[in-house]
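I would like you to sit down with the pair of lines that follows and say whether tokens and residues agree.
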Amino acid sequence: MPRATRASRLSGLLASVALLAVAAVGCGSSGSGSGSSSADAKGPGASSASGAFPVTLDHKYGSTTIESAPRRIVTVGLTDQDAVLALGTVPVGTTEWLGGYKGAVGPWAQDKLGGAAAPTVLKDTGTGPQVEKIAALKPDLILAVYSGLTKAQYESLSKFAPVVAQPKAYNDYGVPWQRQTEEIGKALGKAAEAKALVSGVEDKFAAARKAQPAFAGATAVMATPYEGTFVYGTQDTRSRILSDLGFSLPKDLDKVIGDTFGANISKERFDLLDQDVAVWIVPDLTTAVAKLHGDRIYADLDVVKQGREVFIQESGDYGNAVSLSTVLSIPYVLDRLVPQLAAAVDGKTATKVEQPAS
């Protein structure tokens, strides 16, 4: 399966926010309750807490009640599969975003499959979820927590299974990994387990902050050379990795990019890139970096002249893990990103920011 490019991934995200889905084919049960269940779709350790159901979750389009423990879960949210897997259940369907992984399950999550078959992979090319193919999987729960699901898409999917859409409090594709994990935990009847998972990863952030006191008070920004210069906002999961490590994001970042997870900026606003460290997700570590440094305005910034850039290749496992930023992928990221950030902000221009060994 060919891997999607950075441009197509971002285009898909932006298009999904703007476009309505095609009309759904009428199917099965009401979106307010559970559909038919199948024990063979349930992964190891997938039992739900006694008394956890029914459970009602609020979201952007109202609320959804799940009457009993779901056993056939489809993830429409582009990263929701990791939280489901972390909680001991293997989805019957996932939605492709990064490409290149069987079942849309990255190496940081492979062991969570156990002996179960990899999920069926669905696609969203910008026109919305593949409603008919989702219906054919006979889900009893559809998760769209990390998504840009429209109301029309939500209503279409709700015709045959309960749908948990993105939380109202955040931009589309802006839900923090903590909230994502906890919402999915509630939906699966595993609220306590979800909180424990979140605490475990937050402990890793705390350990990194303690080991790297220079991160506190330093400024950082996350960007990618997509159709010029694309900067991620404070409500993007990638930017939150930096803030969770103790960095401060540019003060007027959201004012410049607007009410979205990120946006392209003009060269007049390259000041947003001139932070204590600039983290770039790039198509490759040679040509793309050379092109960035070939821009005289950017090359003249202190962040470049003082060697305070971190480059992450988007097409590798590391870059994919950064883009997902989930309860399972973040520990994988921290092992690689923290040493790079430490080298970038050590105050020594001669220090080279090395690439991870793997």
Remarks:
- The CA atoms of residues 289 and 309 lie 10 Å apart.
